[in-house]
Amino acid sequence: MEDKKNQNEKIENMEIIISKTLRAGVLLSALIILIGLILFFATKSSGYPANTYPTSVVAIIKGLISLKPYAIIMTGLLVLILTPVFRVGVSIITFFQEKDYMYVYITSAVFIILIFSFLLGKVE
Amino acid sequence: MILTSLIILLISIVAGVFGSLLGLGGGIIVIPMLTLLLGVNIKYAIGASIVSVIATSSGAAVTYVRDKITNLRIGMFLEIATTTGALTGAFIAGLISSKYLYIIFGLLLLYSAFTMLKKRNEELPEGVVSQPIAKKLKLEGSYYDKVLKKEIKYNVTGVNKGFGMMYIAGVISGLLGIGSGIFKVMAMDLFMRLPMKVSTATSNFMIGVTAAASAGVYLVRGNIDPKIAGPVALGVLIGATLGTKIMTNMKSTTIRKIFIPVLAYVSIEMLLKGLGV
């Protein structure tokens, strides 16, 4: 009985941790995108030639350093794209803390596939 | 310029509300609205849609995971099939013309409308016996239903079929840039016989992970245009936050009845465009 109660509490903790992680990621990305958009409309310039924008992580970071509006928006989008990846990563840790090793493996497999697909995107 | 962004923002709020309600991801609304209403090229609409799916998923998951409506174990287990499928889809996407994308999309929406119509009166699944594999994987769960005002315990069946369907859902997601939530909800609802709210919330959780798996490819291809995807992300995040509040306080039968005509209408629009009428 005591064990079961403990386990339920752990699962509850895990859900709260994941929920909070998500909220932080979501709020951060929304804030960055908003700043980028405001800057874009205020300066009436994207920081890039017409109809172009950064399409690689390196280009986005370079543009961000020189505070180009489009690069700022793209940074926010990148943070947003990364929230699910981050969410999976946090789940691995929390399943591990629960000593639920079967799900540590399952979640790790998902994480590896995710990282793999990000790398594939870069190579192309 | 600002006006266009505001229109995109408003469309995206609506997309976020419906997407989070039904576990579909906003893409299913964002793509038709951007292409049909604003004349955005499908190439950029798909990029914006990937962003909207992730925004719906992460925005809604904040609440659904906290309220334990999302079944994390089912989500993670099925995610193996979906992410593998998404990779497959993303790499064959460049080989198909936008005309066919419209037709595939139209048929996809029409089919889901019929699926929903058939299940319009079912509030909770009954008489479900858990498969041994479901017990082994600890997939069973429970959540508190605010409308029925009680804790709903549920069993899980059809694990293998559900897993197979998820791979197909992943391929479609990578191919069309949508979270293919309809297929995910369908697999969990039809094969695994989960309560509707658990299916939509778990689908919501998963679609973001699946979309993220192909987002890298779309970013590098230049499908993600910041002046479109930026307002989409903001709008969908706002909409998804509202949508989760509505969903927890709504009967699933009500949600279905609102959405069926919308799906049917949009699907016909897309089909006509694809056929060049």
TrEMBL record, chain A:
Recorded protein name is Membrane protein
A Pfam family found in this protein is: DUF1634
Keyword set includes Transmembrane: yes
Please give the start and end residues of each transmembrane region.
21-42, 77-96, 102-121
Organism of provenance: Thermoanaerobacterium butyriciformans
List the keywords (alphabetical). Membrane, Transmembrane, Transmembrane helix
Name the domain of life this protein comes from: Bacteria
UniProtKB/TrEMBL annotation, chain B:
Instruction: Please tell me whether the keyword Transmembrane helix is annotated for this protein.
Output: yes
Which keywords does the record carry? Cell membrane, Membrane, Transmembrane, Transmembrane helix, Transport
Compartments where located? Cell membrane
- TM ranges are 7-38, 44-65, 163-183, 203-221, 228-248
Q: How does it sit in the membrane?
A: Multi-pass membrane protein
Chief subcellular site?
membrane
Q: Does the keyword Cytoplasm apply?
A: no
Listed InterPro entries: TM_pro_TauE-like, TSUP
Q: Mind telling me which PANTHER family this protein's record contains?
A: MEMBRANE TRANSPORTER PROTEIN YDHB-RELATED (PTHR30269:SF23), TRANSMEMBRANE PROTEIN YFCA (PTHR30269)
The family line of this record is: Belongs to the 4-toluene sulfonate uptake permease (TSUP) (TC 2.A.102) family.
| Name of this protein | Probable membrane transporter protein
Species of origin: Thermoanaerobacterium butyriciformans
